[in-house]
Amino acid sequence: MVAASEAGTQGARSQTAKKPWYGILYVQVLIAILIGIVVGWLSPNLATNEWIKALGDGFIKLIKMVIAPIIFCTVVSGIAHIQNASKVGRVGVKALVYFEIVSTFALLLGLIVGNLIPIGHGLVAKPDAAAVANYVKQAEAQKSVDFVLNIIPDSVVGALARGDILQVLLFAILFGFALMALGERGHRLRDVIDDTAHAVFGVIAIVMKAAPIGAFGAMAYTIGKFGPAALGNLIGLIVLFYVTAGLFVVIVLGLIARFVGFSIFKFIAYIKDELLIVLGTSSSESALPQLMEKLERLGCSKPVVGLVVPTGYSFNLDGTNIYMTLATLFIAQALGVDLSLGQQVTILIVAMLTSKGASGVTGAGFITLAATLSVVNPALVPGMAVVFSIDKFMSEVRALTNITGNGVAAVFVSWWEGELDHDLLQRRLNQQIDPSDLETAVTTG
């Protein structure tokens, strides 16, 4: 069985190696992103055409179409094959502990950098409250109790239809426990769910062939609509956020990776296809299904991946945390509002709570920023208009940091649980895998 699996893996690797450079998915996506930037810059009227925008939106919708089935099948299958029911709760607790610790580091890093490099000072800011009124309204509607209740779906069908990650995750956990309790009687149903998961991953392999088209459309529209002129004096905040997010990945996530026994740079290279797709679409959800599959093939435990990654999309948003603290300080500096140490501590506490309601969808970070500002100091809320024009450029790095952080989290919790295959981890990190070969890998692995 192992020999057959290895032979299949070698076959998939050989198939990928024989591909010409222009046939590799990440190369196609990178070229598409570059073309999109050029088209958006030179021909903004064409780039902002609704059909160009539809290319990016359509690809994201295709991916979201399969997110709920993938999460359901992966989680149910993982739990149903576990003999010890307490393991699921243990993995969940470990994941939440990890999320809170790493999220705190992300928030602290944003505050430290924002205080050390006060680039908001001297900016002549004339905020327009009307421009962000809709986001403020959504933020005011967010309440902790509503967030908790929203995890419970009104109906299972509705949760699957909407693709609400946490609602699907809750039902999948309950269904997995029920299936586990059936024992041998549930064997055939487990096989059906496993086969369904393989079929859905086959759908993803087909959809991923359209990734370059989606990346082109999303990037062209972004540059065409917001363009270089939108950057203006705010280029400093964009650069500072990019650098801070990079420091978090290299230092914080890098140390975590080193502790487990792998290189963060090799891990980034391993998921580079997903990162480029996220860069093109500005949504970390666009790469969620194939990230879960890659993590399993990397040697992570299937139950751990099924629980940690979907949960992390609401509870482990490192990029969003960095953005909220950094942007809050920038707005305060631009408006000439001095924040005391106590208020900055309040930012940490409030941002830790408001970030839990965000997801990988573009704009969610801006809504949580509004929620944070309204609690810390209501006078800062109109200042959101200062960063409104560049939020689209910052959302891409938020999404990139979020997906990288969730990938590392799955590896770490698998290691913590004692279910990480270190040998397979090292072998996978030293080879090239094209997501377009996903169907082959699923069938042979």
Unreliably modeled segments: 1-17, 438-445
Q: Approximately what portion of the residues adopt beta-strand conformation? A: under 5%
From the N-terminal CA to the C-terminal CA, the straight-line distance is: 10 Å
Number of helices: 23
Shape: globular
**Would you tell me the structural class of the helices and strands?**
mainly alpha
In which range does the helix fraction lie? over 70%
From N to C, what is the helix and strand string? Answer: HHHHHHHHHHHHHHHHHHHHHHH
Overall mean pLDDT score? 77
What does the main sheet amount to? Answer: none
Radius of gyration: 22 Å
Please provide the count of β strands.
Answer: 0
Family: Belongs to the dicarboxylate/amino acid:cation symporter (DAACS) (TC 2.A.23) family.
Protein name: C4-dicarboxylate transport protein
Subcellular location: Cell membrane
Membrane topology: Multi-pass membrane protein
Provide an overview of this structure.
It is found in: Cell membrane. Responsible for the transport of dicarboxylates such as succinate, fumarate, and malate across the membrane. It comes from Bradyrhizobium ontarionense. The chain is 75% helix and 0% strand. The protein has helices spanning 2-17, 25-42, 44-47, 50-80, 86-116, 133-141, 144-150, 156-162, 165-182, 187-207, 211-226, 235-260, 264-270, 272-281, 288-297, 302-315, 318-334, 341-354, 364-376, 384-388, 391-416, 422-429, 438-444. Helix 6 (133-141) packs across helix 19. The protein starts with a helix and ends with a helix. Residues 1-17 and 438-445 have low confidence and may be disordered.
